[in-house]
Amino acid sequence: MDTGSHRVRRPATVRRMILRDPVHGLVSFEAPESCLVPRLLDAREVQRLRRIRQLGLTSLAFPGAEHTRFAHAIGAAHVMTLLLDRLRSIEHMLPVEHRITPRDAREAVAAAFLHDVGHGPLSHLFEESVPGLPKHEHWTDAIVRDSGTDVHRILEAQAEGTAERVAALVRGEHRLPYLAHSVSGLFDIDRCDYLLRDAHATGVRYGDFDLPWLLRSLLVHDAPHRGPELAIDGAKGLPAIEAFLIARLFMFQQVYLHKATRAAEWMVRAVIRRAVERHQQGHTPDHFPAALREAALGTRPTLGAYLELDDAWLTTAMHAWERDADPILSNLCARLRSRALFKTLEIFGEDAKPASMGALLAHAQTVVREAGGDETYDVHLDEAIVVPFNEPSDDPMMVLFAKGPARPLREVSFLLERIAGASIRRVRVVMAPEHRDRLVAALRSDGGPSA
Amino acid sequence: MDTGSHRVRRPATVRRMILRDPVHGLVSFEAPESCLVPRLLDAREVQRLRRIRQLGLTSLAFPGAEHTRFAHAIGAAHVMTLLLDRLRSIEHMLPVEHRITPRDAREAVAAAFLHDVGHGPLSHLFEESVPGLPKHEHWTDAIVRDSGTDVHRILEAQAEGTAERVAALVRGEHRLPYLAHSVSGLFDIDRCDYLLRDAHATGVRYGDFDLPWLLRSLLVHDAPHRGPELAIDGAKGLPAIEAFLIARLFMFQQVYLHKATRAAEWMVRAVIRRAVERHQQGHTPDHFPAALREAALGTRPTLGAYLELDDAWLTTAMHAWERDADPILSNLCARLRSRALFKTLEIFGEDAKPASMGALLAHAQTVVREAGGDETYDVHLDEAIVVPFNEPSDDPMMVLFAKGPARPLREVSFLLERIAGASIRRVRVVMAPEHRDRLVAALRSDGGPSA
Amino acid sequence: MDTGSHRVRRPATVRRMILRDPVHGLVSFEAPESCLVPRLLDAREVQRLRRIRQLGLTSLAFPGAEHTRFAHAIGAAHVMTLLLDRLRSIEHMLPVEHRITPRDAREAVAAAFLHDVGHGPLSHLFEESVPGLPKHEHWTDAIVRDSGTDVHRILEAQAEGTAERVAALVRGEHRLPYLAHSVSGLFDIDRCDYLLRDAHATGVRYGDFDLPWLLRSLLVHDAPHRGPELAIDGAKGLPAIEAFLIARLFMFQQVYLHKATRAAEWMVRAVIRRAVERHQQGHTPDHFPAALREAALGTRPTLGAYLELDDAWLTTAMHAWERDADPILSNLCARLRSRALFKTLEIFGEDAKPASMGALLAHAQTVVREAGGDETYDVHLDEAIVVPFNEPSDDPMMVLFAKGPARPLREVSFLLERIAGASIRRVRVVMAPEHRDRLVAALRSDGGPSA
Amino acid sequence: MDTGSHRVRRPATVRRMILRDPVHGLVSFEAPESCLVPRLLDAREVQRLRRIRQLGLTSLAFPGAEHTRFAHAIGAAHVMTLLLDRLRSIEHMLPVEHRITPRDAREAVAAAFLHDVGHGPLSHLFEESVPGLPKHEHWTDAIVRDSGTDVHRILEAQAEGTAERVAALVRGEHRLPYLAHSVSGLFDIDRCDYLLRDAHATGVRYGDFDLPWLLRSLLVHDAPHRGPELAIDGAKGLPAIEAFLIARLFMFQQVYLHKATRAAEWMVRAVIRRAVERHQQGHTPDHFPAALREAALGTRPTLGAYLELDDAWLTTAMHAWERDADPILSNLCARLRSRALFKTLEIFGEDAKPASMGALLAHAQTVVREAGGDETYDVHLDEAIVVPFNEPSDDPMMVLFAKGPARPLREVSFLLERIAGASIRRVRVVMAPEHRDRLVAALRSDGGPSA
Predict the structure, then answer these.
(1) Which residue in B43, B49, B50 sits closest to B153, CA to CA?
(2) In this structure, are residues B180 and B174 in contact, taking their beta carbons and an 8 Å threshold?
(3) Searching chain B, which residue's CA lies closest to the CA of residue D310?
(4) Does A378 reside within a domain?
(5) Which run of H or E residues covers position A347?
(6) Which of A17, A26, A27 to mutate to test the interface with D (most CBs of D within 10 A)?
(7) What is the pTM of this model?
(8) Is position D56 within any domain?
(9) Measured between CB atoms, does A16 come within 8 Å of chain D?
(10) What is the ipTM of this complex?
């Protein structure tokens, strides 16, 4: 890989690092297991995360939500060091071969730090906008494993094979499944950090939970046929894990599914789709990047081209596209820049059922078309589904008691038993403001909200 | 009433008051509607609340929980001023006759301040210990209405009839039911303050919720046959009221039903019961107060006698009773002072069902008796039942939407729908430590915990 | 003015607004005096503040510091509403002609919201980089007063003359000087918000102070020859104002003068200077904006050209300049993107005295030149001076006591008396890393740090 | 020693302990060095601290300040474990003989836990009330060293000599002076905990500082003739130690020297003095305890008698004394119970100088006497002196820099240099309310407050 930019040389000295984090306070990467973080910090692929906001367009609804993937990466690595401290203190519960080695620990911290390094502009948003574009997991894997990246070079400088092992951990594969699950699972370092960080930045307090107590409540349960897995101390930790899961539910309801954000996200996806269409029609907009050119041809973009993309590129491009000859493209971009967002109408009851959605959208499109609007770009049906708490029934999180057998979390929790597997689904018509009154009149059903 | 103590004269000047509260920050009683609070603060019956801990014996499990009923009274009055601010800002939604008058407001703040003024030693604990003793609601009513109290005198100095009206408000009676319900209801100033205060003092963060946002989400719903009631803004307030109710659930699970607290509470109830028995048998313990003498005779204590009781009296009395000739009394008191608490064994499954409890207790008592213990005082069956969210089906809290009809909270909340009416029930055997092993062996059932 | 972008039409309905702010919690612009804020929010010049970080490059040292001027504008307007609440509650202390009218209040909130609307990329940084470029105060004034801006149009739609009056308030001119000083003065809404916000975002807790208590401690002092001014209640407010001023001192020491930030700031200033030089030499870099073209000619940029500039432009431009033919420009840009920052060496004692600085810089430049470096771009002498607490002796903040005369703050404060007028001065050599060892060896004096 | 109470037996099992602390969150005593804390928790002398409020009568001014010495003891032990973690991470800076052994660590945690175990009722207040009564340091020493106490027994069960070594540590004597100074010194675990805890409980935010960052900034400086001492990392820690010391200054100004508290404290001292006088005159009040009987005879109370005293005793006794035949005693007690506190008048300028204080008091006493008051009990001159930052010039806290020599803290801190050695002195006349107007008129000088 060659990102095409000027290569900066830097002496490879041993570095220790402490820094202030608004969520965790003092964050220290000084222990041997943390040694890769200060080095990885210099990687261009990591510094790029400074230019990608964690919550994409959420700052349009919550002005404080400007925090970046970079800060989240640091936070996730920090939570991993806390988790490793806890796991070390209970490793006597495990046979020696199931304990975490110093190398495991070092690579787990690196994996936590890099777990989201492949995100594109506005985090999840970009990958959903371009048909055929690989998801961020693909790019994360590529960044860690491609011999041309700074990240790869730094990992391999530690020990040969490090990059492959870290990539495997991020994918959820490891000799110790409980370690892999702590990078990505029901309770993982990613969720631990993002819930706290998103709550801190948005000012929505419901995302708060008691991280130190939750970590202290972790145990390791050696299940007969499954091997050791993270488990919860039933005497101390039930409210902690419940509050963690409920915090996530609240953040979905309050922030992640916010109507203004969903409307803006659809607008940006429409912008990118339209820009690609214009390019395919021979009217390539300014600032149209190599990665999209490649994607428009149905080829997978090179890693170098992908890494050129970030929020600053998207902002600059959309600003340029305000002057594009295509009125659809220019209009959407101008609206986004001045926050003249599309409106939403939430649909309830029968009309919102999966089987009715096709007819609902067709109806809305007809209304828009008859009013002279663009049925593709002026109206959209947005469906969001979240399952706040779910687990595979054959691999549930277990709760341990001083006496008596281990039991699945969902069976011992008053709250979680009642929401296990249940989904929250929100259906909204997203529409240009000039069509709102007409659509509201046409689509208003008798229903009204229900749980 | 004559409390028998030295009467202190004080000039009845107009007083304004600001103070620092660890929960709410700056607390100000400067507005006209708050004018009674600075005056009531001087009442001896109110100052007595400084000597009564809000959470009784909870500090045995959470060392920070030393906060008093006095601080809670200030906090509750403060929350009422915030609530009145909100109600004023939406009073245009109501016909004039349903709006809160300045007198209503002044008396609502006073009612909030006095709503728990009748609590006895260790708050709820004392009233449960003495058979036939009226509950704290009775004493609150008496303190407000008895012409001999400072509280009564101060209220009546404001305007004749104030005391009766404030007492009615505390009992939940008012021309404006929504005002009465804000003193005591599903969402009331009592819960608002105690959840935050108990969370702050114990260090258990789950009691936290977003009070300003919740207050801002309040609306008034004018139901056809019920008159105006507090309601929730469906566009803004659903997570706020959900988090409030879930916070209460968490506080029950984590704090209010804590096993050490429950064990200690039973010990204190046993101490008081035993002291009364000893008195009835002609062996009156030292520091045996007039209120208990009266209660032991089956007569209701005078208000003056009741007001002599507080945590300091109970602490001093129990210390004296360590030297009582009765070994049961002296032993329980000595254990409590040095925190050598009784142990608990939680019972699950079939054995915990209401129908089995008689047999369970009998079995436990037999074990204790056969081991030479006291079957009445060395073992106890403790049952706690909490319904985290319940409402009368004919008077639910309503949620209002910009469009569409008002709907009951339980129907529109993903979480609350699933827990409405459900109860948490905990059954524990409480026992002197010396009987634990024997009882654990005898009572251990196959079960184990379940939700 | 014509910003050249697509104009978005929006119906001018009355809007009320509440939102969540991570610093202040619930922020409400619902009162009549706040009516301009929801409307101004739609102005393109205000939305532009979303693309300008409050603390410029500080996120290179404190990863959380991504908060924007937009969030600060909201916070400052919110603090103004709190301040107006306080001033209203004490207006009886003033003659009627010195009281704040509803129009004054409305315009004060608007002025608070707009006080920094003219900031350029990376806030203060940009204006210091381009010789002859007007300061942000100029641009703020222009945005408010130029009849082509959304801001102007919205203000004038409220009442003719509003824009001029708001502009005057921002400049510190008003019939009521105490109102003007609350927009900009020793204690003003700008400082109140930015200290708390910067502390929240960086995780540096020293910027915290007790805003509600400080506001409650404000009084108005009617000085004989000066007219009414904000003053402090000596019985309540001394620690509050002291803590406010000490918080500012700590934030300077800890954040605003951080060595990594200062080094990065110098690098960006060097980048812009070099880009302008290259343009003047006929080698115009890509993405070189109209505003800089105009500035390079010594003409003041048009407002439209200025408003095109924001952090996203600068990020994109510097990324493009990594490929510029000029090695100085490309190298600085590449270093910044990958955070390979220049190093600093703090100078103490004699060498740091103002009289010695010329010789110090010359010495450093010689060292760099002899090592083959660029004496203009590879080394720099950075001097920062802050006076934590200073006031004009003829217009000090006064402290009022229940008895006795008003006294200047500096005379009654144990802490402030001791730091009044004293300055903190930091002198650092900023240098490319490859010259560090050589420069450290050459410049190391015997001194060492002293206060 | 025999406290005369019922001895409770408890099995001496190994115990590990975690608990929730409102200040520090999760507090864990699970490491080997913490093993004594769970055991010491059962000691009756430690449980007694539950009945002694940390801030004495401060809750009369700050209703939240009900926290106990018991919670502070836990917090101080917790801070010691954090400090030991830090010291371990830098022990390579010290020769082996200067490093902390496991036994040192275990005893340091015990010393931190026990450092205030000898406090009497209302903490500092009691010891100042009774002439000739030993200070709390004496009683702490006695509790640790007396072979009759639970504390002694538990310490000696760990290893012979433990009690003597722990007592020496509390007195500030240890082979490693830096360890002794961390129990009691400029920066010690006592201050660390009480500043945070008092701030948390009172709601006064100025006591807050960044403990984790401060601990991380600690280094050990091996001074030539003094041996190793705790020092500050000049690159990281200056604002942290400054904020710590300024927090203490603010807490003195705001809380510890609060006028209502000072007035109430004088009242309680007067009550105890008067009760002792009455006893000496043959009119022994009720509840007059053995410890005071002994003190009244000029003999040092036995440890057993001393340990019977706590806040509950004092509250009960003062309540009983409201009915004492002596009007001075009964009146003071009644005033305290209903919070009808004495008033204060702060004296400034010439009148407040040490040389003038005798005349000032005489003048005040004359005024009171002539008005028919009691010149001994109705008026008092209260002088409080605090030196916010002071160090012996031959043993200052040093600040270390990467390059250059270590320098004393006071020389490198802008703030501390300016307050080093300076004292805050407050002189107030304390008086019965009925004498206030008269005394204010008589004592009002021209002065007014000055710094």
Answers:
(1) B43
(2) yes
(3) B316
(4) no
(5) strand A343-347
(6) A26
(7) 0.95
(8) yes
(9) no
(10) 0.93
